[in-house]
Protein backbone atom coordinates (compact mmCIF):
# COMPACT_ATOMS: atom_id res chain seq x y z
CA UNK A 1 0.00 0.00 0.00
CA UNK A 2 1.55 3.29 -1.10
CA UNK A 3 1.83 6.54 0.76
CA UNK A 4 -1.07 9.00 0.80
CA UNK A 5 -0.46 12.70 0.39
CA UNK A 6 -2.25 15.96 1.01
CA UNK A 7 -3.62 17.65 -2.14
CA UNK A 8 -0.96 19.50 -4.12
CA UNK A 9 -1.59 22.92 -5.66
CA UNK A 10 0.38 22.51 -8.89
CA UNK A 11 -0.46 26.00 -10.14
CA UNK A 12 1.20 27.49 -7.06
CA UNK A 13 4.24 25.28 -7.60
CA UNK A 14 4.45 26.30 -11.25
CA UNK A 15 4.59 29.93 -10.15
CA UNK A 16 7.24 29.07 -7.56
CA UNK A 17 9.38 27.22 -10.11
CA UNK A 18 9.10 30.13 -12.52
CA UNK A 19 10.21 32.56 -9.83
CA UNK A 20 13.09 30.41 -8.60
CA UNK A 21 14.27 29.77 -12.16
CA UNK A 22 15.18 33.46 -12.35
CA UNK A 23 17.87 32.80 -9.74
CA UNK A 24 19.62 30.16 -11.84
CA UNK A 25 23.01 31.33 -13.15
CA UNK A 26 24.27 29.60 -16.30
CA UNK A 27 27.93 30.56 -15.97
CA UNK A 28 30.89 28.39 -14.97
CA UNK A 29 31.77 29.49 -11.46
CA UNK A 30 33.62 26.42 -10.26
CA UNK A 31 36.33 26.81 -7.65
CA UNK A 32 39.79 26.13 -9.05
CA UNK A 33 41.36 23.73 -8.61
CA UNK A 34 38.40 21.39 -8.17
CA UNK A 35 38.98 19.33 -5.03
CA UNK A 36 35.70 17.49 -4.49
CA UNK A 37 32.77 16.43 -6.67
CA UNK A 38 29.64 14.90 -5.12
CA UNK A 39 26.88 12.77 -6.54
CA UNK A 40 23.28 12.81 -5.33
CA UNK A 41 20.53 10.25 -5.68
CA UNK A 42 17.16 9.58 -4.05
CA UNK A 43 15.32 6.27 -3.74
CA UNK A 44 11.82 5.47 -2.48
CA UNK A 45 11.67 2.12 -0.68
CA UNK A 46 8.66 0.74 1.21
CA UNK A 47 6.33 1.27 -1.75
CA UNK A 48 7.31 4.93 -1.85
CA UNK A 49 6.48 5.63 1.78
CA UNK A 50 10.14 6.34 2.61
CA UNK A 51 12.43 8.88 0.96
CA UNK A 52 16.08 7.82 1.07
CA UNK A 53 18.50 10.57 -0.02
CA UNK A 54 22.19 9.91 -0.60
CA UNK A 55 25.17 12.16 -1.19
CA UNK A 56 28.62 10.75 -1.93
CA UNK A 57 31.61 13.12 -1.99
CA UNK A 58 34.69 12.09 -3.97
CA UNK A 59 38.07 13.73 -4.38
CA UNK A 60 38.97 14.96 -7.84
CA UNK A 61 40.49 13.84 -10.11
CA UNK A 62 41.18 10.64 -8.16
CA UNK A 63 37.48 9.95 -7.49
CA UNK A 64 38.00 8.27 -4.15
CA UNK A 65 35.14 8.46 -1.66
CA UNK A 66 35.97 10.91 1.13
CA UNK A 67 32.54 11.45 2.66
CA UNK A 68 28.95 10.33 2.37
CA UNK A 69 25.58 10.90 3.98
CA UNK A 70 22.31 8.97 3.90
CA UNK A 71 18.99 10.33 5.17
CA UNK A 72 15.64 8.58 5.45
CA UNK A 73 12.37 10.33 6.13
CA UNK A 74 8.67 9.81 5.39
CA UNK A 75 7.74 10.71 1.82
CA UNK A 76 5.66 13.88 1.90
CA UNK A 77 5.11 14.67 -1.79
CA UNK A 78 3.62 12.49 -4.55
CA UNK A 79 5.35 11.42 -7.75
CA UNK A 80 4.44 14.14 -10.28
CA UNK A 81 6.67 14.48 -13.38
CA UNK A 82 8.04 18.00 -13.64
CA UNK A 83 7.82 18.53 -9.88
CA UNK A 84 10.25 15.91 -8.59
CA UNK A 85 12.47 18.46 -6.86
CA UNK A 86 9.69 19.15 -4.33
CA UNK A 87 9.66 15.41 -3.62
CA UNK A 88 13.44 14.95 -3.37
CA UNK A 89 15.22 18.19 -2.46
CA UNK A 90 14.04 18.42 1.19
CA UNK A 91 15.71 15.09 2.00
CA UNK A 92 18.80 15.98 -0.04
CA UNK A 93 19.18 19.20 1.94
CA UNK A 94 19.12 17.18 5.16
CA UNK A 95 21.85 14.93 3.75
CA UNK A 96 23.81 18.02 2.70
CA UNK A 97 23.79 19.22 6.30
CA UNK A 98 25.50 15.97 7.37
CA UNK A 99 28.51 15.97 5.02
CA UNK A 100 31.82 17.30 6.32
CA UNK A 101 33.54 17.89 2.96
CA UNK A 102 31.69 20.56 0.99
CA UNK A 103 32.00 19.75 -2.71
CA UNK A 104 32.90 22.17 -5.45
CA UNK A 105 30.29 20.59 -7.73
CA UNK A 106 27.21 18.39 -7.45
CA UNK A 107 26.25 15.87 -10.14
CA UNK A 108 22.56 15.31 -9.46
CA UNK A 109 20.45 12.37 -10.57
CA UNK A 110 17.78 14.42 -12.37
CA UNK A 111 17.24 17.30 -14.73
CA UNK A 112 18.82 20.74 -14.72
CA UNK A 113 17.36 23.32 -17.10
CA UNK A 114 16.11 20.50 -19.38
CA UNK A 115 12.73 21.04 -17.76
CA UNK A 116 9.48 22.65 -18.97
CA UNK A 117 10.05 25.65 -16.70
CA UNK A 118 13.88 25.43 -16.80
CA UNK A 119 13.97 24.45 -13.14
CA UNK A 120 14.70 20.79 -12.60
CA UNK A 121 16.10 19.14 -9.49
CA UNK A 122 19.71 20.19 -10.14
CA UNK A 123 18.59 23.81 -10.48
CA UNK A 124 16.55 23.64 -7.27
CA UNK A 125 19.34 21.96 -5.29
CA UNK A 126 22.00 24.27 -6.70
CA UNK A 127 20.02 27.41 -5.89
CA UNK A 128 19.29 26.17 -2.36
CA UNK A 129 22.92 25.25 -1.59
CA UNK A 130 24.67 27.95 -3.63
CA UNK A 131 26.98 25.28 -5.08
CA UNK A 132 27.42 24.54 -8.80
CA UNK A 133 25.20 21.67 -9.91
CA UNK A 134 24.66 19.61 -13.05
CA UNK A 135 21.64 17.52 -13.99
CA UNK A 136 22.55 13.96 -15.01
CA UNK A 137 19.31 12.30 -16.07
CA UNK A 138 18.79 8.77 -17.37
CA UNK A 139 15.76 9.75 -19.45
CA UNK A 140 14.35 12.75 -21.29
CA UNK A 141 11.74 14.92 -19.62
CA UNK A 142 11.27 17.45 -22.41
CA UNK A 143 12.87 18.49 -25.67
CA UNK A 144 13.83 16.91 -28.99
CA UNK A 145 17.09 15.38 -30.17
CA UNK A 146 18.74 13.14 -32.71
CA UNK A 147 20.46 10.02 -31.42
CA UNK A 148 24.22 10.65 -30.96
CA UNK A 149 26.80 8.36 -32.51
CA UNK A 150 27.51 5.06 -30.76
CA UNK A 151 31.00 5.95 -29.51
CA UNK A 152 31.78 7.25 -26.03
CA UNK A 153 31.88 11.04 -25.97
CA UNK A 154 29.40 11.48 -28.82
CA UNK A 155 26.71 14.02 -28.12
CA UNK A 156 23.71 15.75 -29.64
CA UNK A 157 21.82 18.89 -28.73
CA UNK A 158 18.64 18.58 -26.70
CA UNK A 159 16.40 21.41 -27.89
CA UNK A 160 13.04 22.88 -27.01
CA UNK A 161 11.37 25.39 -29.34
CA UNK A 162 14.75 26.18 -30.88
CA UNK A 163 16.53 26.64 -27.55
CA UNK A 164 19.39 24.30 -26.59
CA UNK A 165 18.50 23.10 -23.10
CA UNK A 166 20.89 20.18 -22.72
CA UNK A 167 23.10 17.56 -24.32
CA UNK A 168 22.41 13.92 -25.08
CA UNK A 169 25.75 12.35 -24.15
CA UNK A 170 27.06 8.86 -24.85
CA UNK A 171 29.20 8.07 -21.81
CA UNK A 172 30.04 4.51 -22.88
CA UNK A 173 30.23 2.84 -26.28
CA UNK A 174 26.86 1.55 -27.47
CA UNK A 175 24.93 2.16 -24.25
CA UNK A 176 21.94 4.43 -23.77
CA UNK A 177 22.97 8.08 -23.54
CA UNK A 178 22.50 10.38 -20.57
CA UNK A 179 20.68 13.70 -20.65
CA UNK A 180 22.99 16.40 -19.31
CA UNK A 181 21.92 19.94 -18.49
CA UNK A 182 23.35 22.68 -16.28
CA UNK A 183 21.62 23.19 -12.95
CA UNK A 184 23.27 26.24 -11.43
CA UNK A 185 26.58 28.10 -11.77
CA UNK A 186 27.50 25.93 -14.78
CA UNK A 187 27.38 26.16 -18.57
CA UNK A 188 26.31 23.27 -20.76
CA UNK A 189 29.85 22.88 -22.11
CA UNK A 190 31.28 22.83 -18.60
CA UNK A 191 28.62 20.36 -17.49
CA UNK A 192 29.47 17.89 -20.25
CA UNK A 193 33.20 18.23 -19.58
CA UNK A 194 32.79 17.47 -15.88
CA UNK A 195 30.52 14.49 -16.48
CA UNK A 196 33.02 13.02 -18.92
CA UNK A 197 35.91 13.68 -16.50
CA UNK A 198 34.07 11.63 -13.87
CA UNK A 199 33.57 8.59 -16.08
CA UNK A 200 35.09 5.31 -14.97
CA UNK A 201 33.84 2.92 -17.63
CA UNK A 202 30.20 2.90 -16.57
CA UNK A 203 27.15 4.65 -17.99
CA UNK A 204 26.82 6.92 -14.96
CA UNK A 205 29.61 9.26 -13.84
CA UNK A 206 31.26 7.81 -10.75
CA UNK A 207 29.85 10.25 -8.14
CA UNK A 208 26.22 9.63 -9.16
CA UNK A 209 26.89 5.91 -9.60
CA UNK A 210 28.15 5.69 -6.03
CA UNK A 211 25.21 7.78 -4.75
CA UNK A 212 22.85 5.44 -6.58
CA UNK A 213 24.48 2.46 -4.88
CA UNK A 214 24.20 4.11 -1.48
CA UNK A 215 20.56 5.08 -1.93
CA UNK A 216 19.61 1.64 -3.16
CA UNK A 217 18.41 0.31 -6.47
CA UNK A 218 14.65 0.68 -5.84
CA UNK A 219 13.17 3.57 -7.82
CA UNK A 220 9.58 4.72 -8.06
Biggest sheet architecture: 8 strands, mixed
The fraction of residues in strands falls at: 25-35%
Residue runs with pLDDT of under 50 for 5 or more positions: none
Put simply, the count of helices is 5
CATH architecture: 2-Layer Sandwich
Q: What is the CATH superfamily?
A: archaeoglobus fulgidus dsm 4304 superfamily
CATH topology: archaeoglobus fulgidus dsm 4304 fold
E-strand count:
8
* Rg calc: 16 Å
**Terminal CA distance:** 13 Å
Question: What class would the helix/strand composition place it in?
Answer: alpha+beta
Report on this structure.
The chain has 220 residues and is α+β, with helices and mostly antiparallel strands. It has a single domain, classed as archaeoglobus fulgidus dsm 4304 fold. The protein is 25% helix and 26% strand. It contains five helices and eight strands, in the order αβββαβαββββαα. It has an eight-stranded mixed sheet, with helices on both faces. β1 and β2 form a beta hairpin. α2 packs parallel to α3. The protein is globular and about 45 Å long. It starts with 9 loop residues before the first helix and ends in a 5-residue tail after the last helix.
Summarize the SSE layout with pairings.
Layout: H1 10-21, E1 36-43, E2 50-59, E3 65-74, H2 84-98, E4 105-109, H3 121-129, E5 133-137, E6 155-160, E7 163-169, E8 178-184, H4 188-197, H5 206-215
Parallel strand pairs: 1-4, 4-5
Antiparallel strand pairs: 1-2, 2-3, 5-8, 6-7, 7-8
Provide the descriptors you would attach to this structure in a database record.
220 residues, archaeoglobus fulgidus dsm 4304 fold, eight-stranded mixed β-sheet, 25% helix, globular
